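Q: I'm a student working through a structural biology exercise. My instructor gave each of us a protein and asked us to get a predicted structure, then write a short paragraph describing it. Mine is tRNA (guanine-N(1)-)-methyltransferase. I'm not confident about reading structure output yet, so if you can add a plain explanation after the tokens, that would really help. Here is the sequence I was given:
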Amino acid sequence: MRIDVITIFPEYLEPLNVSLLGKARARGLLDVRLHDLRGWTHDRHHTVDDTPYGGGPGMVMKPDPWGEALDALLAGERPAADPVVVVPTPSGRPFTQELAVELSRAPWLVFTPARYEGIDRRVIEEYGARLDVREVSIGDYVLAGGEAPVLVMVEAVARLLPGVLGNAESHRDDSFAPGAMAALLEGPVYTKPPEWRGHGVPEVLISGHHGRIARWRRDEALRRTTLNRPDLIESCDPEAFDKHDRETLAALGWRQGADGRFWRPPDGVEE
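A: Happy to help. First, here is the predicted structure for tRNA (guanine-N(1)-)-methyltransferase. I'll explain a few features afterward.
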């Protein structure tokens, strides 16, 4: 996969050289190219922003540098397929594991992390008319710029590429993994030693009984999900839960509505 990132802070993306991503780049599994947006400016101050039309606080990134940068990438040495252009923005579609899987199937991704109040809307409209442009948010909060979201998304996507993880099965049980029986958070994990500072490992994990271990992990995933992300339980297709799941959820205070979906009465409120 080829990934291009256009940014005014290429140094922010240095983490792409370390750990799994760095190894993937060294092995030729991932071709990451960083581009300084200021290289497509033509004034002595390398200006990339200006005041917004209509007034208001902050500055807006100018369309000319972005247009020249994207045109240069599209006209240069490139994969045969057009890129998917990913625009990090708090107003975009939520970034999910499902979207990470979808993006991992693209041969070429171009990320356009913005600063200030964002990129002049005409850039999105211009390239959205002829390319697959995705506006994507990593969460309901605002950062100083889009480089941190790029790091998040590139790592989430790249680890799904064949050969990047040492164990090809590692991501199958990830939290939110598509195709699972239900979109549950991953449960707790343990390793050696069997006792640490008075804390032991759950007996079932050292029992050697694979069926019991699988059931325990499923139950713990249900418990963690009901605690940290109850919305996932509420939105899940009830057919995703087997009989034991339903019993576990009932023991945790969940009920099934007329449509079969699970819901939990507020604390202190009787049905």
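A: Here are two points you could use in your paragraph. The two ends are 53 Å apart (CA to CA). Helices lie at 19-26, 63-75, 97-104, 121-128, 147-158, 210-228, 230-235, 243-251. It's a good idea to check both against the output above yourself.
Q: Great, thank you!
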